[in-house]
Amino acid sequence: MSTIKKMTSLPFFCGEFNHSLDNQNRLAIPSQWRSGDGDEFVLFPGEEFIMLLPMQSFQDFLKKISKVSIADRKAQLALAQIGAKVQQCKCDKQGRIKITGQILGEADIDYSVVMVGSFTNIQLWNPVRWEEINDISKDSLQQVEKISNTSSSVLDNFQSLLEKLTD
Question: Would you call 40 helix, strand, or coil by DSSP?
Fold first, then answer.
């Protein structure tokens, strides 16, 4: 466990790890990213990567969406579309999670996986795709500066996802 992680009660993920799926589509979560007590994650498939959100952070998202009106058809449809695709998983005793073939396929991941710490979540990338985009550019640094100057959270990313699905 990193020193930074010990300083905060929030999950914190940094670094990059190359791993492989086993024949049952299980992936070992690096020990420094686990607390050691059956860590739980929610997997969100995407076009480029799979996002693993710690259950603690996902609880915040659930609180936020519980305020969405049942009468808001557009929002309810978006939530149903997302809910149908996400997967809840829990690390086994060896620190592995099992990922469905459907979620892996949406991110074009077959055997090899690059696990990227994205501060508040973990991203799983196809190694070829990650290599193509993994260049810290001026734009990336500007985005980090923009993020640090706002009070937005990872939950705002879900709002963007909802907006994309309902457009």
Answer: strand
